[in-house]
Amino acid sequence: MSKVALITGITGQDGAYLAEFLLKKGYVVHGIKRRSSMFNTDRIDHLYQDPHTDHRNLILHYGDLTDSMNLTRIIQEVKPDEIYNLAAMSHVKVSFDTPEYTANADGIGTLRILEAVRLLGLKSRIYQASTSELYGLVQQVPQSETTPFYPRSPYAVAKLYGYWITVNYREAYKMHASNGILFNHESPIRGETFVTRKVTRAISRIALGMQDKVYMGNLASKRDWGHAKDYIKAMYLILQQDEPDDYVIATGITTTIRDFIKMACQEVGLEASFKGEGVDEVGYISGVDEKLFNAKVGVEYLEAIKERIKSGNNDIVHVDPMYFRPTEVDLLIGDPTKAMSKLNWTPEYDLAGLVADMMQSDVKLMQKDAYLNKGGYQTMNYFE
Ligand code: NDP
Ligand code: GDR
User: Fold this and answer.
1) Distance from C-alpha of 301 to C-alpha of 268, rounded to nearest angstrom
2) What keywords were assigned to this record (predicted)?
3) Residue nearest to atom 35 of ligand 1 (CA)
4) Whole-angstrom Cα distance, residue 164 to residue 145?
5) What separation in Å is there between the alpha carbon of 317 and the centre of ligand 2?
6) What is the ipTM of this complex?
């Protein structure tokens, strides 16, 4: 008999990778997607199966983490062996604009799932998508399973409730419920308004001459970035353990946003430098490795870039305080020792590999946009 998994947030970055991973392992995968006025299944369309055919192993259900009855009915129908609760309003900055909704979806949403499993008397194992944002204001580094939490956003506070209600249901009702405290993880299908993807999209467009510059927020904050493909494997491993527990998943290496931008530029042969401080800081292209640029971007775009550098019109990054957060998380660096020893988890990608994967994908996407634009078709610009 195939194992049955239910993934909330299946249309998101992690949900899409996890669904593909579990399908390859022979699972029947059920996913909860939200009703939207437009199609919102781009990331899983390659896994889509016609609902009119028999023997599907990927089944989607309409639902929402704010709707208890909906969640309880789906869990009752599906009777999953494993539940991966990945759905969330996951943008830290946006959570300051929508704090109540974030608390409802990210905090109480977790309770709704735990309580549904308990009331239905199921033995489903539950994975809760906890986050390094719980650490917030720096108490100690590197951050491990024993580091105190100090959340710094409505998102992190909601996730704090999700974390502790998961621990509480595990202890109170002996449920197999675990937290993965995942540090930032990215990929070519990362949401476009998170910092890494915003950068890899913008640098690709700048290299292709489709955009002049990009406006960013705090360039000094530091993040421990891994690849989502590695991190979803940890989620799976956590639910395969005999005993439920909580694990930090991280790389142990931290990098500033500024250095991430430099790495993204380097990937396509552009040398980026920064001058100034705070809101006056500016990033500019100071050189080009022509061979690399031609290979990665295209020889037809080289002259324009060289001209920008020569003319001094070479600023590509400006700071706009609109992207600052009312309270920031300055430094994240995780200690994955427990996951490495107990789960036998090891990431395959390092940061350079992640940047290369994202840049390769975004350059290709933007080349397609450039081609469409030339043909007279308007493509989407994201300046958020
Ligand atoms: P995404 O933002 O890419 O995906 C979030 C998913 O949740 C989407 O499928 C979204 O649907 C869905 N969703 C949002 N609100 C609701 C709701 N009210 N009801 C049902 N579904 C909803 O996030 P990631 O894939 O990056 O992250 C997965 C989880 O892991 C999230 O809980 C996130 O907070 C957490 N996390 C992420 C980290 C990261 O670095 N990526 C690190 C640590 C934790 P739709 O597609 O319709 O918007
Ligand atoms: P984060 O990710 O808040 O860590 O949450 P994000 O990529 O949004 O920000 C990381 C850091 O970059 C700084 N920054 C900017 N961020 C955005 N989005 N846009 C900008 O223009 C910009 N400029 C600078 C931010 O201030 C911040 O310091 C992510 C989400 O996936 C959460 O759901 C998850 O829980 C955590 O990672 C771990």
Assistant:
1) 12
2) Lyase, NADP
3) 129
4) 13
5) 17
6) 0.99
